C-alpha cells in the first residue's frame, strides 16, 4: 500500500458519514450531468428530511439524473438551483419550486471564481483513484477546476463504473476531505431513430463541411444526423462542448483524425459527455481523448484558432429578424443558453468557419410554425440576429450573414412550411421588413 492508498483508506467512509460534513446553510455544487454524486446527495437529503439540515443549496449546471433535492418538501432545507435545465428539473422551475441562473456555459467557471461569494462543498461522482492518487471527473471537465479551487471541502462518490479520462478534470486525494464508494451503471442517453427530416437537414449541413474541418455538434436528432452523414469526409477534427455517440462512429471509421487541428493535434477534446455504454468504454483510459474546462473549450477565441470550424446547434424558434430562441417557450423556461452562442461566435471568427442553427420548421404535427414574424412574447434570445450565419430546416438552407434585413426575411420565410409562408410574408410587409 503506497501513501496515496493510505490516504484513501483514511478518508473512506459510508455515504451517511460523508453527508455529515454538510452543514446547515452550506452552498454545495457539483459538475455537469453524470458527475452529480447520487449516493452523497441521497444521504444529505435524508438528513434534511429528518430535520437535521436547513438552508442547504444544491447547485447543478445540468442535472440529468434528478435527485431528492428536487422534492418540493425539501424546499428551504436542501433545494436545487439550475444553471441549465434538463427534463428532471424542468417542471419544478416552471412551477416556481426551483430557480435558474441565466448564463452562457463558458462563463460558469468564472462565476464560481469571481462572482459567487462562497462554495462550502464541492461534491462529485468520480472514477476510481489511479496509482498516482488522482481521480478523474470523466463526464464533465466543465467546472471542475474552478469548483475544486473555490470549495472549502471536497467530497467524492467513487463509482467503479466511471471511465478514467485524461485532461484538466482531475482531483488529487490530498485535496479530498472524505469519500465513499459505489458501483452504479452510468445513465445512458437513448437517441431515437433519425427521422427523414433529420436526415434531410443533416445532409444539407454535411454538404457544407469540407475535408479538414473541425466540428462541434450539439445534442438532438439533427446534430446526430450530421455526424452520421460525415463518414465519407477526411481528416476532420473534434473540438466540442459535448462528446456524443456519432463522434465515436466518426473516429472509428477514420473520418475524424484530429490531425489538421492547430492545437490538441491527434486528440479529441470536450468539456461534457453523455451517451451509450459503447461511448463510455471508448473514453476509458484513452490517451487520444481529453476533458477540459468549459471556459477553455467554449472560448470563442480558442474555437477561432481552427480554420473551417463548423458549429451545429438546434433551436426552438426563429423570427423574421433572424433572432434565435433555444431556451424558452415564450415565458416558460425550458433549458438554458448552454454553449450555443459561444460556438456560433467562434465559428464566425474562424477563417472559413460556418455556424449552423437547425430545426424542423413546424411542431404539433405541422399545425404550428417554428418560424414566427416575431418571437413568441417573452421568449429569450439565445443567439442575436447579428451572430446568426446559416439557418436550416427540412425546407432548405440559407446563409444570412451579410444580407439586408429584407433579404434575410425573405430567406427565412423560404425555410417555413408552405402553408405558413403567405401569412409570414403578410406580417413581414406590415413590419416593413419586405420592401
From TrEMBL:
One biological process GO term for this chain? acetate metabolic process
GO function terms (MF aspect): acetate CoA-transferase activity; hydrolase activity
Domain Acetyl-CoA hydrolase/transferase N-terminal, chain residue ranges per copy: 5-178
Q: Which Pfam families match?
A: AcetylCoA_hyd_C (PF13336), AcetylCoA_hydro (PF02550)
Which InterPro entries does UniProt cross-reference here? AcetylCoA_hyd_C (IPR026888), AcetylCoA_hyd_C_sf (IPR038460), ActCoA_hydro (IPR046433), ActCoA_hydro_N (IPR003702), NagB/RpiA_transferase-like (IPR037171)
The superkingdom of the source organism is Bacteria
What sections of the protein cross the membrane?
A: none
Asked whether the keyword Hydrolase is assigned, the reply is yes
Specify the Acetyl-CoA hydrolase/transferase C-terminal domain's residue ranges.
275-427
Q: Which keywords belong to this entry?
A: Hydrolase, Transferase
Q: Which family does it belong to?
A: Belongs to the acetyl-CoA hydrolase/transferase family.
Name the UniProt record assigns to this protein: Acyl-CoA hydrolase
Amino acid at each position: 500500500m503506497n501513501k496515496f492508498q493510505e490516504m484513501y483508506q483514511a478518508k473512506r467512509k459510508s455515504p451517511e458519514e460523508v453527508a455529515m460534513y454538510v452543514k446547515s446553510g452550506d452552498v454545495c455544487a457539483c459538475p455537469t450531468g453524470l458527475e452529480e454524486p447520487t449516493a452523497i446527495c441521497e444521504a444529505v437529503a435524508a438528513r434534511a428530511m429528518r430535520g437535521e439540515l436547513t438552508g442547504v443549496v444544491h447547485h447543478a449546471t445540468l442535472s440529468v439524473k434528478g435527485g431528492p433535492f428536487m422534492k418540493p418538501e425539501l424546499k428551504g432545507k436542501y433545494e436545487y438551483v439550475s444553471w441549465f435545465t434538463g427534463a428532471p428539473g424542468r417542471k419544478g422551475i416552471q412551477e416556481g419550486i426551483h430557480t435558474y441562473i441565466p448564463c452562457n456555459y463558458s462563463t460558469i467557471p468564472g462565476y464560481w471564481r469571481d462572482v459567487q461569494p462562497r462554495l462550502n462543498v464541492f461534491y462529485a461522482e468520480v472514477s476510481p483513484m489511479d496509482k498516482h492518487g488522482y481521480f478523474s471527473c470523466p463526464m464533465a471537465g466543465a467546472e471542475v477546476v474552478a469548483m475544486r479551487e473555490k470549495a472549502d471541502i471536497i467530497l467524492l462518490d467513487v463509482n467503479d463504473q466511471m471511465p478514467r479520462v485524461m485532461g484538466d478534470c482531475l482531483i488529487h486525494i490530498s485535496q479530498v476531505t472524505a469519500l465513499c464508494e459505489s458501483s452504479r451503471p452510468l445513465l445512458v442517453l437513448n437517441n431515437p431513430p433519425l427521422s427523414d427530416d433529420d436526415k434531410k437537414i443533416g445532409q444539407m449541413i454535411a454538404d457544407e463541411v469540407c475535408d479538414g474541418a473541425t466540428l462541434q455538434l450539439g445534442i438532438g436528432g439533427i446534430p446526430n444526423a450530421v455526424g452520421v452523414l460525415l463518414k465519407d469526409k477526411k481528416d476532420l477534427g473534434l473540438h466540442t462542448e459535448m462528446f456524443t455517440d456519432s463522434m465515436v462512429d466518426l473516429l472509428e471509421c477514420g473520418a475524424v483524425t484530429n490531425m489538421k487541428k492547430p492545437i490538441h493535434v491527434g486528440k479529441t477534446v470536450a468539456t461534457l459527455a453523455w451517451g451509450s455504454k459503447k461511448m463510455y468504454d471508448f473514453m476509458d483510459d484513452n490517451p487520444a481523448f481529453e476533458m477540459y474546462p468549459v471556459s477553455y473549450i467554449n472560448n470563442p477565441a480558442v474555437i477561432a484558432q481552427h480554420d473551417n470550424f463548423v458549429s451545429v446547434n438546434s433551436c426552438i424558434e426563429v423570427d423574421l429578424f433572424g433572432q434565435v430562441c433555444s431556451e424558452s417557450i415564450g415565458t416558460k423556461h425550458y433549458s438554458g443558453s448552454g454553449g450555443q452562442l459561444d460556438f456560433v461566435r467562434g465559428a464566425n471568427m474562424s477563417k472559413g468557419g460556418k455556424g449552423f442553427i437547425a430545426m424542423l420548421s413546424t411542431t404539433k404535427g405541422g399545425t404550428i410554425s417554428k418560424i414566427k414574424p416575431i418571437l413568441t412574447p417573452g421568449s429569450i434570445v439565445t443567439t442575436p440576429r447579428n451572430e446568426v450565419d446559416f439557418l436550416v430546416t427540412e425546407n432548405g438552407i440559407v446563409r444570412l450573414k451579410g444580407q439586408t434585413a429584407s433579404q434575410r426575411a425573405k430567406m427565412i420565410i423560404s425555410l417555413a412550411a408552405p402553408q405558413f409562408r403567405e401569412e409570414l410574408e403578410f406580417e413581414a410587409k406590415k413590419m416593413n421588413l419586405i420592401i
